[in-house]
Amino acid sequence: MPAVPIDAAELVMVEQPGCAWCERWNREIAPVYPNTDEGRFAPLRRVDLHALPDDLRPLRRLAYTPTFLIVERGRELARLEGYPGEHFFWPLLGDLLARHTAFRPEAEPGG
User: What is the pLDDT of residues 5-25, one digit of tens each?
Assistant: First the structure.
């Protein structure tokens, strides 16, 4: 059984061992992500760049880590390549979610 309903959005983080920007995201964002409007709307799913699951259908090749995919039913709707730092991450993620899903934030980005 999937961790989220089959038609729900999820944030897929494509990462790989040794990725310094992934580690920075893990320090700055990962601890609070599940408690934010964004995290409640699009729960985080982590996948390894070199072992993509069969149920994930990216629109184009994945080459960089971290890459964040907004996904519904396994299909990529949007992506954010790289981690631009926490002050840029939240507005970019919120905008992508609002443009490509039914997400409507109740608070400030990351709130």
Answer: 445 899 999 999 999 999 999
